[in-house]
# Entry
Amino acid sequence: FGVEVISLGRERADGPGLLLRVPDENVTSQAGRQRYFYSFRLENITVPEAFANASAVEAAGWQIDYVDAQLPVGANAEQLAAWAHQLPSQSR
# Structure
């Protein structure tokens, strides 16, 4: 199970395209960090195939970067995991 989100602006002022995958299939290389991809191009961005491997995303002109993954203040990771497992399978 995974979700891939791509954000592309309508005009140059909207900034670079972003691509984020949750969960990230590359969890071992940067523990505690979330990998995302961004495009330096502001126009004519090549969108890779859905869930293409990282080398294919880079070949399409996207760059890899990381952001520190943190729970919101007061969040309990165990409670969140238990809640997610209680959801019906259609919701996950």
